[in-house]
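Researcher: Quick one. two chains, 998 residues in total.
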Amino acid sequence: MFQPIRLPGLFAATLCLSAAFTIAPAAAQESTDPIKLTLHDWTGQLITTEIMGEVLKKAGYSVEYVQADYLAQFAGLETGDLHVAMEMWETTGRDAMDAATATGKVENFGETGMQAKEEWWYPAYMKEKCPGLPNWEALKSEACAEAFSIPETAPKGRYLGGPVTWGGFDDERVEALDLPFEVIHAGTDAALFAELESAYQRQAPILLWIYAPHWAPAKYQGEWVEFPPYSKECYEDPAAGVNPDAAYDCGKPFGPIWKVGWSGVKDKWPGAYAAIKAFNVNNDEMGAMITKVDLDGKKVSEVVAEWMAANEARWSGWIKK
Amino acid sequence: MGASFPVLQPVSEPIPENPASRGAARARWLWPLALALFVLFWQFGEGFAKWAFSYPRALEIPAARWIGRAAKWLVDEASFGLFTFTDLTRFLADIIDVPYRVALGLLSSGLLSGQGSSAVQHLPPLSWLAVLAIVALIGHHAGGARLAALVTACFGFLVIFGQWTSAMVTLASIVVAVPIGVLAGLLLGLAAWRWPFFERMLVPVLDLMQTIPVFAYLVPVLVFFGFGPTAAIVATLIYALPPMARVTILAMRSVPAEIRDLGNMVGCSRRQMTWKVMVPSAKDSLMVGVNQVIMLSLNMVIIASMIGAGGLGFDVLAALRRLDIGAGLEAGLAIVALAVALDRLSQAYAEKAGRPAAGIAAGGGFVSRHPYLVAALTIVVATFLAGLAMPALQSFPERWQVSTGTFWSEVVRWINVNFFDALEAIRNVILLNILVPLKRLLGDLPWAGVVALLALAGYRLGGLRLAALVGVLSFLIAATGQWEKAMITVYLCGISVVFACLIGVPLGILAAERERLWRWLQLVIDTLQTLPSFVYLMPVVMLFRVGDFTAMIAVVAYAVVPAIRYTVLGLQRVDPRVVEAGRAMGCTSGQILAKIKLKLALPEILLGLNQTIMFALSMLVITALVGTRDLGQEVYIALTKADTGRGIVAGLSIAFIAIIADRLISAGANRIRERMS
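Model:
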């Protein structure tokens, strides 16, 4: 397809010399329109998306990357302006995803193979000040709460939760497990890690919400608090769990990271649809790649190229007809 | 906007109201009485009038639901018969897309055929050398060698710090958004100037466009205009266009009557009158509007990148996500460099427009008539050929680029490790002694009492109409269930405005008489105004934790700009003869400042206060990102849940607060001006 571009007359003459038609290569019987993949602002997602994009290119598809906000993108996925979002976390994106799939215009393309983990986390040096960790019951002691406190929250400890929009039921959890802690919500993910970086530099107390795959667990030494394991009943039924009178008396769910996209993809690019569904990587691979980019300073495209070279057998299986 | 509308009324200036100058004697007891009543009611009223303290849920206006439903109807059903509303907006999006593709092709992607990754590049984009040379030419054309050097330095910064690719993407959307914004603003302004009824409709709309936070209408814009650069341009336009329309209305009014008469005398038709007489003679002031459109468009870069515009805004966000403060700052400064270059260029053209045009040699060939155009074309061709021979001239090689690397992260680390305790102590004092008590106090006040007090203030300052406006707007905030969050908003903005004035007004007084200091200060405030606040927000979070204090710092840093600027403006405008007279009467310099200069500059300073409040409110969306619980957060939550109704209702509440503050302060400033003259 040639898109005519109108240029100011004076440039036109120069341009005409070399303007020639070229037919884009594409898979047979499928649309030659570009498949639009969304990019967000965290490295893991950029890597996942670029791997998928490279694989689709190898299969002869035209691919376009569009920068979009993680949640605002659903507006585009529903209308078909955007086609594929490679990372939708069970833990933070479930509600938005459910709302979108309910319209019938967005489809869940299955798991990416990665598991999202998120939980309360503390740096290793805090173990000295609160020796019972990682068991959650250690947090109930006054000394521990004091160790995690700041003037506004004292004598209660301070727990830095994710942005309000992430949900997570931390306020309810503190209530249900009767923890002497105050939940402060960071406004964004960046603010969350800025506080961690600051505290870590000073070896100061901090207890906060961390998720993986992410560079933080690789960069900072620390551990996740071990709460009673999550179960569906624990969240829904007050009677279940440690506290017989309250729900949310357990840890956070660990869930898959999903691939989602416009439901028109299946008919427009059947082969690409199959490839996207087949896409699969695991946490360890991804963690290693994120570390290479965020901590060793490599470029996303270099890391993706390395992965493509090392895993040729795997991805060529995804695009087999 | 054709000329087919009948002109309902002759153009007339609205008659200024002057209702509040009577009854000065009554004023003396009115306020103490009202305040006493208010305090009594606040202390003892809760027992018998619970509804006045928390608005009854059953009577809430479900505006969020209505708006949500209306938006859904617009998307799914609204139709003009042949085509639907969505078709119309999509058509507009396609139109905007055409110039954008051209600009992007020239600056960034080159001439492509095909789409996506299978596109084939036929011609490379303009090389960095070519763009650099062309901006230098434009600079020279607009303001001579000095300006040329300045803009070249700005663009050179982009090249050397490796921001070129992203900067050109951003520039492409700016060069599309600005002309559209200017043209649309101009047409709206002209229409409002010609038809008073249109102005009456337009002005409130402009107020809303400027004060509703962008996040509130991002979702509808995405739905109607598709996801990508075009939607980002539309959102930018909504935000950046109002000043142009306002400036146009003002500029048309201030065209001297003699010029209009002259036009009539030589027998201009209406169209000739507008385009050949009015617009050219108001060119000077119109350029101020152009300048504003450019600056506001650049303010939108970060938010635009969240909905697919890419470019520098995306780099800032991504860098801060991995806490790379240096990279974030470099990308942020690249936005500042673009802003400075475009700002100085547009100002130079404004000045040039004010001067009579130098006689253009009528004779001569094409070359001597259009020296700049010919030079630019030569550069394009020459650099294209040079780029073929030497790729380094086409795209600046990576090994020549410089970067501050980890320097800035180390600086923040050093401050953090060595001074955190001292900073924490300051933070705690201010937070625990000022912020927290004020927040509690405002949260406790009965809404009905506050509405009544506001209406009273409106009546005293501007008469019944203002009272009604202020009363109704503040009542609507309560009636849509936003009162509590609105009070947190008022608290956060109020305290920030106080701090901004405490810093800005003295700085302005200092700078007004010291030319060198003022020049440096201008550089600082220009940077503060255009550097995306996200860049300094993350270091501030590292030093002061998330929460209201950090939010306050971000708001003050941004809102201090108008406080300084208008103070300087006001003081510099004071008639030197009055100062001289004061000195002759033996006033000390302290007396001259306090009794003469500040008094005479008060209207400007009040205007500065007004702008400080507007700036503070416009930062609310950003402060939501560091964990506040105000209306800004509400808007942000609504955005992430794609809840159009909720977002717009919260956004409207912010707009109402802004409008109330604006109207009361303007009315106050008018009264002072009256009293002085």
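Confidence is low (pLDDT under 50) at residues 1-22 of chain B.
Researcher: Thanks, that's what I needed.
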